[in-house]
Amino acid sequence: MYPRIEAFGQSDAGCVREVNEDNFLCLDLSTAPAGSEPAAFLLAVADGIGGHAGGAVASAMAVQILREEIERVDGVDPRSYLDDVFRKANRLIFERASREPVYAGMGTTLVAAIGKGERLFLANVGDSRAYLFRGGDLRQLTEDHSWAGEQRRRRLLSEHEIRQSPFRSMITRSLGYQQNVIVDTFDVEACGDDVFLFCTDGLYGLVMEKRMSRILRKHPDPKAACAAMIAEAKAAGGDDNITVVVASYKEPGDAPAVRPYDTVRIPPLPEEKP
Fold first, then answer.
1. pTM to 2 decimals?
2. Per-residue pLDDT tens for 236-249?
């Protein structure tokens, strides 16, 4: 028997914004009963940028392209696959924004992971994050492509000063905003009882990492953890859209015959104007 994966995703508009410009994927790619073969799954979180519904369109396009292209991953290095798909999404979003003025300037963050057995392959553009929760410690895996991330890396400002700055939400890299994009790709080895957390800044901008750790300790079930994270962000003001995906590695044992965790948020895309 192989380790199995339990995962769940949830998104909420928050308490202030009427439109939810976030989207996510949480898909089981395995073809056999859980635990009978190495786990295979696709996880992604996207946070749209741009007014007049452009952000929602950009994030939906990104996750839809990722979902449509997943069949190509067989026999291909997952890191190369992710890099190619991110670049394709960037090009298609940029081209649509160029054709339709109403979407000018739209873009999206995207953090995604392909799980194959006990190895996780990740890619990231923007400031949506991937975390690893192991042994009670929460560690950020991705690098924020943002003004705030740059201040943290260069240690120019305190965390309090960053959170109070009007530039704290400024993105320095996204999909669709420019014709070309640099994609961060890497992979990590997963161990028994590891938990991976993917989220937009609507979560980590309001909920401190220590609190996230406590929630993950208290709620080993991914669905309960997602609900608790979103509730915490909304209790802190919920001034942005909030999206969370939690994936837990479980030791071989009482695995369900069918994993109950395929969850997706991709609203229908507006038709392109001629």
1. 0.90
2. 999 999 999 999 98
